[in-house]
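Async update (no meeting this week)

Hi team, since we skipped the sync, here's where things stand on the single-chain job. The sequence we agreed to prioritize is pasted below, unchanged from the tracker. I ran it this morning and attached the output directly underneath so nobody has to dig for it. Comments welcome in thread, and please keep replies under the output.
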Amino acid sequence: LDDKERVRFHYAKANEAFERTFVKYCEIPINYYKDKMPLVRTDNNTVSTLLNIMLEKPKEPSVYHLYRGWYYLKMGQTQMAESDFYNCIKLNQYADDAYMARAALYLNDGRYEIALKDYEFAKEHGAKFALADIFGYGLALIANGDYEKSYKTFSELREIIPWEQNTNELIHAIDARYEINAYLDAVKSENG
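Output:
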């Protein structure tokens, strides 16, 4: 094998391994939002305490939809959750939690482009990102091919939580992918 073929071979192997782990990492942000809604058991029925509070006196309709969206996520009803996050945003276009929960849902569902749009809208409007949101934003950047920005995002995250193995693995994978792409681009430009 010549250098170019060897690089392509290693790129394909690295890419295959990266894609396998990428899907697993997409579960991190959605699990964060699934856990936002605490559940309690009463009389063999699963009841969401926060949801019950909102059903009693919905002071703010957008918040009601947000809580109910979290509830549906927890219960595995992603279409209902997506609908409630949409309704929350429709009622309050700056509902950061709804944008980020919906982005996590899109990311987990493989709809990377619209996940990135939701993360970027929330970021542009000064949303406070939880660690899971930063992680999700970085994953959405990777999925949309912005390796430089994703590398920066994960590097910042690693400074916050240096022990986080997932972050370190992703940074190494992004770095390898970025370097291989740069090498292939250089070879292409040399060969005209």
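Quick observations from my side:
The longest strand covers residues 39-42.
Residues 57 and 71 are 17 Å apart (CA to CA).
Reply here if anything looks off.
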